[in-house]
Amino acid sequence: MEKTINPIEEMYERKPQRWWIYTLIVLVVVALLGWSGNAIEYKGLASKGSDVAYGIVYGITHPDVSMLVDMTKDGVLYMLFETVCIAILGTIIGGILAIPISFLASENIMPKWAAFIARAFILLIRTIPSLVWALVWIRVTGPGAFCGVVTQSICSIGMISKMYINAIEDLDTRILESLDAAGCTTFQKIRYGILPQLYANFVSTLIYRFDINIKDATTLGIVGAGGVGAALIQCINSRRWSMVGAFLCGMIVLMLLIELFSTKVRKKLARG
Question: pTM (2 decimals)?
Answer without folding.
Answer: 0.75
